[in-house]
Amino acid sequence: MKRVGTPRRVLGVGLIALAALPLTLGSLRVTGRIIIPEGDVLTEDLYAIGNLVSIEGTVRGDVFAISNELRITGSVEGDVNALIGGRVDVTGDVDGAVRVAAIRLGVDGSVGDDVAAFVVEADLAGSVGRDVLLIGGEALISGSVGRDLRLQAIRLGIDGEIGRDILAKVDSLTFGAGARVLGDVLYRASDDATVADGVIIDGQFTRRTVLAPVWAKAVTRAVSVLSLFALIVAGLAASWTFRSTSERAVRVVEDRPVRSGLIGLGLVVTPPLVAAPLFLTLVGIPVALFVLLAWLLALVLGPIPAVTRFGGLILHGNGGVAAALVAGAVVWRGAMWLLPLIATLVYLAALVVGLGGYATAGWSLRREARV
Q: Which residues does 177 contact at the CB level (< 8 Å), separation at least 6?
């Protein structure tokens, strides 16, 4: 595999973490402030990395952004996919879908397709043509949603029109006087919803109790997402710091997966067995703690070669090692989230094969250095 060393490939790493995005770039811009001025027309996809991304003109394509703030006061004729450390404000028009992870999402303009967001706070006062999928802390829907609203949040306020059904898991649900739901409302909450006079709900209105508060589930999911990013960052750091070993480990996993798995299984089982008797002596305690610490580190970093190889298969060898790691990590962790019954097997398979790849690669490089 080729090494990742250019801004284009680094951009690809970040974008793959958002979703399965195309590897062919349109207009790439990396600077502090990226602004498409009013009146300007960009006739291709925009890939932007900067502190501020502001679209005041027109983008005739998709927008992929990683920044601290994203503003859309003009128009985007495709989709918007963004990883934002602060605010996302859409006061203009987006013909496609908006998919973001941010601190705050505000939509005062129009979105022709879906809105999917992982945010702390969302305020949708504009119009959304299709569905809205939100996971976050607090959400207010005072505009219009063309179809379904599916949401998990701590607090939800509805004061606009929902074209079809509402399916929500919340701690607090409030319907303002301007709320109108043309379908059913099914919500899970500890308490009944607050419904103002004048609210119109055409379908059924059903509440189901929850066993655990939404905030607890939100914390659990946030930890899961952070652990994914931590794995990616740790993998990139390990690949950069121990480049030769990491690249050799990926090749070993590709060429000898069964042998790597057997070696990795031995490395997973052996350290606790070695550390247990060491705790019986005062001199052995520091050694046992060191062995267990190394073992825990191996449990975290061990899957990286196997995950990277898997990502390489997904991308058909394109994008380099870093892109393969990110793609493999997203799909691997996604499989564990979606298939909880076999999540342990999915994790252990990557762990033992990847750890065995590391061990084999390190041993072979050491022997070559002695020659």
A: 159, 196, 197, 198, 199
Q: What is the DSSP string of 256-313?
A: -HHHHHHHHHHHHHHHHHHHHHHTTSTTHHHHHHHHHHHHHHHHHHTTHHHHHHHHHH
pLDDT band at 219 (very low <50, low <70, confident <90, very high): low
Per-residue model confidence (pLDDT) at position 89: 96
CB 101 within 8 A of CB 119: yes
Q: Where does a domain end: 214, 236, 254? A: 214
Cβ neighbours of residue 160 closer than 8 Å, sequence gap 6 or more = 124, 125, 141, 142, 143, 144, 145, 178, 179, 180
pLDDT digit string, tens, across residues 302-327 = 899 999 998 888 888 777 788 888 88
Residue 267 burial class via C-beta count within 10 angstroms: exposed 0-12, middle 13-18, buried 19 and up:
middle
**Confidence (pTM):** 0.54
The residues near 133 (Cβ < 8 Å, ≥ 6 apart) are 114, 115, 116, 117, 150, 151
Helix, coil or strand: residue 204? coil
Residue 1 lies in a domain: no
C-alpha distance from residue 87 to each of 83, 116, 117, 257, 337 (Å): 10, 15, 12, 45, 27
Range of the domain at 82: 7-214
> What total number of domains does the chain contain?
2
Residues 13 and 107 in one domain: yes
Tell whether 210 and 237 lie within a shared domain. no
